[in-house]
Design a protein that fits this description.
The chain is an alpha/beta fold. Helices cover 37% and strands 21% of the residues. It is built from five helices and six strands.
Amino acid sequence: MGYCPVPNTPIPMAQGHPAPTLPLKGRESGAATGTGKFRLSLAVQYATDHQWVPSRTQFRRWIFAALERDAIVTLRIVDAKEGCELNRAYRKKDYATNVLTFVYGESADGTLSGDIVLCAPVVAKEARAQRKELKHHYAHLVIHGALHLQGYDHEKPADADVMEQREVTLLARMKIANPYGA
C-alpha cells in the first residue's frame, strides 16, 4: 500500500487549514463503530480529468464508515503529476502513490483535522491490475486514509493486523470483498 501519514505537515491546498468552510453535519444514527454519532465537515476537491471518480456523496459515505470521532477533512483527487510532486515533497519518493494522508491534529473540542489525497490514475491502474472494481478500490483507499487520519498505522506487523482488520470489517459492511484477498 503506498500511503503516507505525514503529521502536522500542511500541503499547498490546505493553507490556513483547519478553518472549516462548512458546518459540521451530524452523522446519521447507527454509527459504524456503534459508539454514537460523529460529525464530519468534508471538502472534496477534484483536481483531475480522469474519466471516472466517485461522487462527493460516495466519498462522504466511506469516510463516515471509518469515523471514530468528529473530523474536518479535505479530500483531494489529483492527477499523476500532482501526486508525484506531493510524494516527492513529503516522502522523498519520485513517483505518484495511491493515497497520502496529512494529519493536522485536533481542536480543543477533540475534532480531528487533516487531508487525504488520492491519485486517480494510480488508483485506476491498481484496480485494473488487482482485478477489483474501481469503486471498491476507492472505498478501500478512502477508508485507509481516514483510519490513518485517526492514528491507525501499519509500520509494525501487530499494528498492520489491527488496521487491516478494521478495513476489512468496514468494507464487509458495504458488501465489498476483503481487499487483501484472504
